[in-house]
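Chain X:
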Amino acid sequence: MQLGSGSEADVYLYRQHAPNRQVAIKISKQQMDSQAANRLRSEADFMGRICTHPHILSIYGSGITATGHGYTVFEYASGGNFKAFLEHDRLTADQMLTIGIDLASALFTAHRKGIIHRDIKPSNILINAQHMPMLADFGIAGTIYGGPSVGFTVAWAPPEVLANGGGGNEASDIYSLGATLLAMVTGQSPYEYAFVDELGDFRGKERVERLQAIILAKPLPAFHRPDIPAPVERVLHKAMSPAPEDRYYSALEFARDMQRAQLEMYGHTERTTIEGEADIPTDLAAHARLTTTATPTTAESSRRGTSRTKPLAIVLVALAAIVAIASGFLFLIAPHMDTTSDDRAVQVSGSGPGGKTSGQDNGNVPDSGVVAGSVPQVRGLSGAYNAAGTKATFSWTNPDPQDGDAYAWSLVGGTGERASSRSALTSSTSIAIDPSGETQTCIKVSLIRADRRMSDTPAMACAIRP
């Protein structure tokens, strides 16, 4: 049974023999050249590093057949995706915040392992059998400190990505998540909703070009919707600030502010699911305990959904006959395809997936890889311009030097160019940067071990032009 079709791959539903389960298999439309094969391996590697998170779609395997086609076998998300859901339903602001905290937890998990998504949008948020949102389609993802990657969707991309023709970083992912969450309430991407009159009857390529011009030229206005309380709108607007440096510094910070807004407005808050981080921030913990039905036990604290009030009822589309799949089945997906289920119609009743069931136990699927606190933050990061104002020099120290240590640095705002285009790895504890006429230059630096683990939180400092 075909679930969907993209520009470079098709997606099918199969039943795997061993173990006996339904799986989604993405299969390339064309035979793979070496570049496509490398992209396939890259996507599989990305997903394998982060898919233990309960809100990131699991990958079961990938490979290439003797005919040159390849495959990626994924967890089957039977509830479809939010693009299909938004065609006929909406979430309340409370439900949207719950989904948002879950997805921000997943995004932070990816970011701190060096992976950015670059194409977060409703069609890439799937809904699994437990009614849980799943971040999917990392096909155009890349490492935070690697080179730029082409691929984005205009309606959900931030201005700096549109202005530079691709790429992105943590800040651009946060923007796209904020835009996606707003659409879960309004039904449209932010600028399509806010400037509906100016988009008028434009269709196809002309509409995309017009939308891009609006995003680049105009700030996002306030919405003044009675169903989006002011504290909730404030959080979303910060996530979608036109200037990357004005957005949340991390997806975790975004999740924390959503928790505060949810508790303030609705008297409860969803918990984050991030290894090594408290599930409720310290400043909310005392009040949050008063809003739960009971104090969680150690076992219960690893379970999800204690704050759900309106579970999503997913009515699955009737399935055609399921083709048996041999345990050694080999097929492919090319990573730059559209999302797995973009074209699949899914029926959803009720007011949406604001309430996933509370039965998912995360205790047996920890986010392995980067252990919180295992790689320290660099210390003493500081910067200064030279007397002529032509160079900004930054230096720092390593609190625990080890063989193979390196440092990843990147610009933080303050420049007219994409931050990811001014970033690099270095083995030195100092760098000199051409400030390009800016009044200040800011950078962030992470310590990276030889095994590719990196600091959970980068250090940041600015140099001010004399």
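Chain Y:
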Amino acid sequence: MSTAFTTGQGPATPGQVFSLIRDGRALTRSDVGRITGLSRTAVAARLGALLGSGLVVEGAEPDDRGPSTGGRPPVHLRFNRAAGVVLAGAIGRSRTQLGVCDLDGAVLASVDLDQEVGPAAEDLMAQVVAAFRDLLASVGRSPDAVRAVGLSIPGTVDFDRGASLDSPIMAGWDGVELAPFLRPLTAAPVFVDNDANVMALSERRGHLERHRDLIFVKASTGIGVGIVSGGRLLRGASGAAGEIGHTKTSSAEGLPCRCGDTGCVEAVAAGWALVQTARERGHQVDHIRDVVRLAVVGDPDARHLVREAGRRIGEALASAVNLLNPEAVVVGGDLAQAYDTFVAGLRESVYSQASALATRELVIVPVTHGEQSGVVGCAAMAIREVLDSAAVDRALAHP
């Protein structure tokens, strides 16, 4: 008997049955009955609701039959990933990445929007809605097929309101709820989170399959981390968990940060700070991606800047490793495009400054989904919110 349904919890709901099927733990009606203890009539009732919703299909493919044990062979139940789509948008200071994904998180179509630095929310969101409309048309789906929208923005986010709380990088966005901008396109629920958090969730089909405790480092224009403990994302009391970029460091003493304070790690290691330094040294660069491209082709000055950024971020990260004892540190963001150079500095600081016990089995690994991790993570966040057991039960009760 599965431990998912304990004595006193009550009969398994349709949403819980859906989770069994979606996770591959129940492949047939007999499996559902055996795992949940439900009667055949109760199993039929719950599956009837799920089949009617389109989230589950039964025996839809010729080879979708289980092994025969004599008599009529059983037909398989399976999650219908094509029963709708989710829209995913990773909003950044100078680039926004958008995608349409199926209900299992696979990206069906995507596009990047290059924008003026620091756009107003109403201007950029109008472009986002138009681009989402075009992406839906490109995959032959209508807005009615949208089950949820997942968005990410840099900085601290009020998850419940779907608005930025504090983002020095996205000036003018604080307190602006993003869901109303999507209403001309879809009435589906809109979820908004910090960019590092959603990139951590992108590892649902990646490092989280092996490591239930990890820290995701996003090193781009700004610096942040997403923290997953025991498979659960940690946001903190006010959504500020992981704001490691504004940790004080002696190497930045007296240097102004975009947050309005001085002495933050970002002042010496964030993309915006590296661009300033590169310009002072005579390089014609506009974005951290330009600095990274120089480092990748072997420019010694750019390589030094990227490695030093890794070292400074690693100094702050070492304390987090001691505190949280993760199994893995996953590295993503623009600086990760110069992975070997950046991680050389990061590894040097983490392994020299964190405790031997905390680093004994620690691995430092690259992001699974590369530059699409923001889109994949936004989709994973939205899917988790609308397809968990309780959400499915609510949807079936109020279709």
